[in-house]
Amino acid sequence: MRRELALTAATLLVVAAALVSLTRVFSDASWRPLTAAAVLLALAVAAGARQVGFGMLASLVGSLVGLTVFTYVVHLPAGPLLPGPEQLGQAATLFGEGLRQFRDQPAPTVPLDGLLLIITTSVWLVTHATHELLVRWRSAGLGLLVPAVLWVVPLAVPLPPGRTWPQALPFLAAAGLVLLLESDRDVAGFATDRDGVRVPGAGVTVGAFALVVAAVVPGLLPGYGSSSWLDLSGRDDPRGYQPIVDIGDRLKLPTARDVLQVQADRRTYLRLAALDTFDDNTWRLGPPDEPSFRPDASQLFSVDGPLPPETPIAEQSEAFVNVTVLDLANIYVPVPYQPREVLGPDRGDMVYSTVGGFVATGDLAEVQVGGDLRVGVTEGLEYRVRATVPSPGIDQLRQVTPDPAVVAPWLQLPGSYERLGAQAEEVYAAAGATTMVDRAFALQDWFSGPDSRFVYSTDVDVLRGSDALERFVFETRTGYCEYYATAMAVMLRASGIPARVAVGFLPGTLTSPADPATGQDLDTYTVSTTDAHAWVEVLFPGYGWIKFEPTPRSDGATLQPSPQDLDPVMTEREQQLQAFEEQLEGREEDVPVPDTPTTAPTDAPVPDAATDQDAGTGAGEGGLPWGVVAVLLLAGAVTAVIAAGRVRRSSRPDLDAPSRILAAQRYLHASARSYGVGRRPSETTAEVLARWVDEGRIDDERAGRFTLLVQAAAFGGELDEESGGEAEALAAQLAAGLRASVERRDRILAPVRVPVASAASTGRGLLERVRDELRG
Fold first, then answer.
1. 616 — alpha (psi -120 to 50), left (phi > 0) or beta?
2. How does pLDDT run across 298-341, given as a tens digit for each residue?
3. Residue closest to 264 by CA, chosen among 510, 572, 530, 531
4. Angle 358-360-361 from CA coordinates, rounded to 5°
5. Count of CB atoms situated within 10 Å of the CB of 542
6. Comparing C-alpha atoms, which of 336, 321, 303, 323 is closest to residue 379?
7. Confidence at residue 244, expressed as pLDDT on a 0 to 100 scale
8. How do residues 495-554 score in pLDDT, each as one tens digit?
9. How far apart are CA 48 and CA 20, in angstroms?
10. For strand 532-540 and strand 544-548, is the pairing parallel, antiparallel, or unpaired?
11. What pLDDT, in 10s, does the model give residues 140-190?
């Protein structure tokens, strides 16, 4: 019995040690709890079946039943008590997505749902097989062979140079211990249990010495780290790396880091590559059914001289950009569209592809990529790019009617996407858009315009799965740039407009403006991981690929094209600030500020006579009992006190004007929530104020003035000291208007509505967390 317990513990040890190598595959540790649960449960089922006397076949059946239940609880949506055919279909679909993710995702990657299903399923089966071979069969050699497969596959994943031994040694040590446990001949094969477990001291010493020698000596040998005489690794095949997969990883980093320093005379996006193919899962370079991509020899060019255009551009302007890599390891070189010349000492190590319009680090031999595309974009790389920027007029683009045969490659989709195409047509019809460029702008505005109902957030899963795109467009409407670029490009193609997705970086933050007096002729921008981005490009034959921006980023860091400015140099936030300042300068009259103190009226509106009489009767028809009336009066008094207290707290003359204005904004939104007319999830302050005006709740002029003050405070506009007090007064007046516009019931419930809603939300969150803990 003691020997079986020892071998069961050895099974746990050797499987756990094999899992250490998976740290090379995933970029964070969120896979570990699920994997650990799979190991422990699989081992518990196998050991329990052994103890109750189940045979090998019965133990396998029990383990498969346990795996099915585990998969249902942990990986699949909630459903009936027991899984049925529908759940099996969901598991098969998720497993297929996992196989595609294994093909497409470069390591290390985020632990996607499909990948986790494959990992937990494999770990469960490996654990069961290891237990049966070690404990039931007492075969150490075969028992170690199964987890060795789980251990060695992640170690074979090609990654940038680094230490591998921390992932390799734990399994070797655990395997050595298992072999020592089974070293006695009288316990080999099917031998009976012994009372003790003997581990030879000499064996431990020899094994430890062998591990140390294996870890240290290779680095001391001549030629360590150099190229092999005979390469059997297949490294001449380009890797299946797709640049879009990096976006979510960069945006979700817990701490942003600076990756590039850029000097330019204007803001510009830096592109890594343009992705021409959508495979129903993600945008990619190359055919959808091939895991890797090698451009045709006729489409690859050396970067030693001028570069050919990806597509002809009739109207163009030149842009020059100097780039210094701060902290970025990549294959693709960030360049503006479209690059015509790259200068710098390392340009001889770069190639240019007219498919995807990318510059990559690699060797060019006989007009082909010799060897794989290596990670050549590293810290310290410096280069200068001369690019031609498409500069057509809106009227020129409105005349473009492309030949379907010419643009056919950029209309292809893996399915019909009828629902998305129909939605695009509805957007065009609502906007009255008939030309290709106007339709593209209509769809851009639908996603990111003032009336958009979409929300920007990185707190979402990676956009993967056959129905994920439609769920985003028609249900959740929350995501980051990959979501928006993918949705817009697919909808454009589904409605006959040639489009693709480009990936790269936003212009970044201006850190040092140009100063000709000191010899600095260019602005300096710092690009960070938060500037990782994807956008949409539409092909207008003769004029090139024109950029569109469907992502409604809350920080206003994007360059938002419009019919009036096809290639803006000001970010969306700067454009909003400029519009505000122009509107503020054109406003000659200020809203009069009342002489009364900046506190909200605390008296409820006086009800009409009929209502008052009815409320005062105790027995008349429709009257209320005196006890209820007393409660209502008490609630009204509490409401008044809380409202007054809120305004007093919102009035902070010790703060600067922007802080006082934003505090007044928060007070107004809090008051609106308490009256049941709060801001909707996707509404800005300007939008909710406009809605309240339309509903007849507040005054138009006061709402307009308050909007201007809030925008100035948010975007750094000029404000004087009196602006803070003015905003507080306006907030109080607007809150009073909201209070007067709602029914008496809502005014009475105001003090408790938000706390009750918060408590209910907290309760739901706790229940969801308990459910998640139980499932994983």
1. alpha
2. 788 888 889 998 888 888 888 899 999 998 877 889 999 989 99
3. 510
4. 170
5. 16
6. 323
7. 63
8. 999 999 999 999 999 888 888 888 888 899 999 988 999 999 999 999 999 999 999 987
9. 26
10. antiparallel
11. 878 888 888 888 777 666 554 455 667 777 888 888 877 777 654 444 444
Are the C-beta atoms of residues 264 and 510 closer than 8 Å to each other? no
Long-range pairs of 421-427 with CB within 8 A, sequence gap ≥ 24: 421/491, 421/494, 421/495, 423/473, 423/474, 423/491, 424/491, 424/492, 424/494, 424/495, 425/495
What's the chain's length in residues?
A: 776
Instruction: Report how far apart the first and last C-alpha atoms of the chain are (Å, whole number).
Output: 32
Q: How far is residue 118's CA from residue 176's CA, in Å, rounded to a whole number?
A: 28
Omega before 108 cis (within 30°)?
yes
Tally of helices (H runs) and strands (E runs) in the chain = 23, 19
pLDDT band of residue 411 (cuts 50, 70, 90) is very high
CA 688 remoteness from chain centre: 27
How many Cα neighbours within 13 Å face the side chain of 144? 16
Residue 262's closest CA among 534, 503, 507, 547? 507
pLDDT band per the 50, 70, 90 thresholds, residue 383: very high
**CA–CA separation, 478 and 725 (whole Å):** 36
Structure tokens at 344: 């710098």
The residue-averaged pLDDT of 216-222 equals 50
The two structure tokens encoding residue 481: 């740039």
How far is it, in rounded angstroms, from Cα 767 to Cα 769?
Answer: 5
pLDDT at 164: 63
Q: How far apart are CA 35 and CA 42, in angstroms?
A: 11
d(CA 584, CA 712): 9
Strands laid side by side in the 532-540 sheet: 270-275, 499-505, 532-540, 544-548
> Two tokens at 443?
């769809």
Q: Is the pLDDT of residue 760 over 60?
A: no
H or E element: which one contains 537? strand 532-540
What are the extents of the domains in the chain?
2-216, 245-393, 609-761
DSSP category for residue 288: T
- The single residue listed with the structure tokens 């007044």 is 664
The owner of tokens 């071998």 is 7
Helix (H, G, I), strand (E, B) or coil at 726: helix
- Confidence check: pLDDT of 423 > 80: yes
Structural contact between residues 716 and 708, judged by C-beta atoms closer than 8 angstroms: no
DSSP 322-368: EEEESS--BSBPPBPSSEEEEESTTGGGEEEETTTTEEEE-EEETTE
Q: What are phi and psi of 366, to 5 degrees?
A: 55, 45
Closest CA to 100 of 246, 244, 273, 282: 282
Whether the predicted model's global pTM rises above the 0.85 cut = no
Extract the tokens encoding 646: 């809120």
- At position 456, the amino acid (one-letter code) is Y
CA distance 383 to 42: 54
Q: Which two tokens stand for residue 232?
A: 């059997």
**Cα angle value 741/742/745 (rounded, 5°):** 150
Question: Which among 240, 252, 260, 244 is positioned nearest to 27, based on CA atoms?
Answer: 252
C-alpha span between 141 and 147 (Å, rounded): 11
